[in-house]
Amino acid sequence: MRDLRILLAYLSCLTLVTADFEPGQHLQDVHVHTLDGTFRIAPEQRGRPLLIMASDLHDASIRWMWSAAKSKLDFVTKLPQADCLFLSYGSNAEEETKKFKMELVKAMEAADWDESSRAQLFSRLHFATEPVSSQPGWLPGVLQAWPSSQHVIRAESTGIEVLTMERLDPAYEWLPWPGPSSPTSLALVHDSPCEGPWASSVAGRVALIILQDPAASPAGSLGLQAATCSFARIIELAQDAQAAAVLIASKPGHDVVQMTCDSPADCSIPLYTPATMISHSAAVQLRSRTSCHKLPRTKAASLCHLETSRCQDTLRQWMRRAGCK
């Protein structure tokens, strides 16, 4: 039987440039290569503000921001009178910023913007073709002041390398994290997560929920049928069972999504149990590290016998695996 424990953490991916800037400091002009030519940043001559957005697609929250229709629509409709420079931390920056531009085009099309309105907005949007690390002058140093924190889950099994998984927390205005700050053992939820009450064995543990396509799940598998209820209902049942937190796997073949409440009834449920989403593949890896034995239960849950052991993954190892600069 393997020992396993779960730890939820934040890892920072920093731009490795040292800089010390002061308010009112004069900065030199820089020229940034973009999809539409060269964009000159002349701080002493700017007539309007410049917003700089640097994206790291290793971060689940950034990927979700660029895929969620509402976030893109809010950007194109609420952007103030300012220029916006889009940068990427990835080595294939040009391909990534091309995708950013196309996503904003789709948002404008969905909002029925005419060609004139689109052109007017795009005259203020600039998409860099080189990564942050290759940007000229003071740009990388300025961005160092806003490091990108990656939200992760770390699991250690006795005798096996630490497993580090990215996570995407729910909409903050609905269900603010924090999760357990100390390592916690795991309970795997079976059958339907929408039916309660869950077994008392979930209490004090992190509940793991893996959704499967019933047609693709062999008999006796640990996967669940597709949930027929909302995220709010699942978290409410976990809360009633006094779970320490809830890990919900994304659908097979899909990226993680940001959980939120879908109706006034869901949004009115008082929730205080932390929840987060991990990828389906990560959840399967996590499940494979456990030795699960079904215990007597009321409905919908069985306990994996998991002891705790020390988590020893290092930030440097994670940054190397994640491709952070």
TrEMBL record:
Signal as UniProt keyword: yes
Annotated keywords: Signal
Keyword match Transferase: no
Gene3D superfamilies xrefs: 3.50.30.30
Residues making up the signal peptide according to the UniProt record: 1-19
Domain of life according to the entry: Eukaryota
InterPro entries xrefs: N-glycanase (IPR053251)
Record-linked CDD domains: PA
Protein name listed in UniProt: Uncharacterized protein
UniProt organism field: Apatococcus fuscideae
